[in-house]
Amino acid sequence: RVDPVVIMLAEHDDRLLLGRQPQYPPGRYSALAGFIEPGESIEAAVARELAEEAGISVSDVRYMCSQPWPFPNSLMIGAWAEAIDDSLTIDANELDDARWFSREEVISALAGDDKASFQPPPRTAIARALLEAWVDGLM
To answer: How far apart are CA 47 and CA 101, in angstroms?
Structure first.
């Protein structure tokens, strides 16, 4: 059995929405994610998860890439979406924090800058690949 999970970046005015969960190392922010419900499309799951976790509405949802993830037997489906606005209502049951990061902040974090405003996901994670693709203009 494999459970499909959407993991996505939302963009607004050349900034990305990233969040942090309680189990993350201090300073780490990553793409938001959640399980796809039975009968739900990838696009609908992206929109629902972003609305539930961060209180944002999105459009133009696009598939980017996928990654098998053995914890717990998941298929991570990477996506990108355009946020309609940047107002956040964070679900404290899901996230410790979420905020918008500029392109410069993402570049600094990916470069490993000691003064970066956040620590990015590890190189082996699809969330890292999504961030790198965004910086490289592939989204």
So the answer is: 20
DSSP tag of 71 = T
Q: Please choose, from the candidates 85, 84, 75, 100, the residue with its C-alpha nearest in 3D space to the C-alpha of residue 1.
A: 75
| pTM across the whole model | 0.94
Q: What is the pLDDT along the chain (139 residues), one digit of tens a residue?
A: 889 999 999 999 999 999 999 999 999 999 999 999 999 999 999 999 999 999 999 999 999 999 998 777 899 999 999 999 999 999 999 999 999 999 999 999 999 999 999 999 999 999 999 999 999 988 7
**Residue 130 to residue 121: CA distance in whole angstroms:** 10
With beta carbons less than 8 A apart as the criterion, state whether 75 and 66 touch: yes
Asked if 135 and 107 touch (Cβ cutoff 8 Å), the reply is yes
HSE (side-chain half, CA atoms, 13 Å) at 94: 18
